Amino acid sequence: MQHFIKDLYPENGDEILNGYKEILTHMDKKLPDFFGHLPEAAYDIKAIEEYREQAAPAAYYYPPPKDFSRPGYFYANTYKPEQRPKFIMEALAYHEAVPGHHLQIALMQEQKEMPDFRRYEGSTAFIEGWALYAEKLSKEMGFYQDVYSEYGSLLMEIWRAVRLVVDTGLHYFKWTRDEAIAYCRENSGEEEHEIEVEVDRYIAMPGQALAYKIGELRILDLREKAMNARGSEFDIKDFHDRLLEKGALPLYELERVMTEWMNA
Question: Which residues fall within 8 angstroms of residue 30, CB to CB, at 6 or more apart?
Answer without folding.
Answer: 141, 142, 143
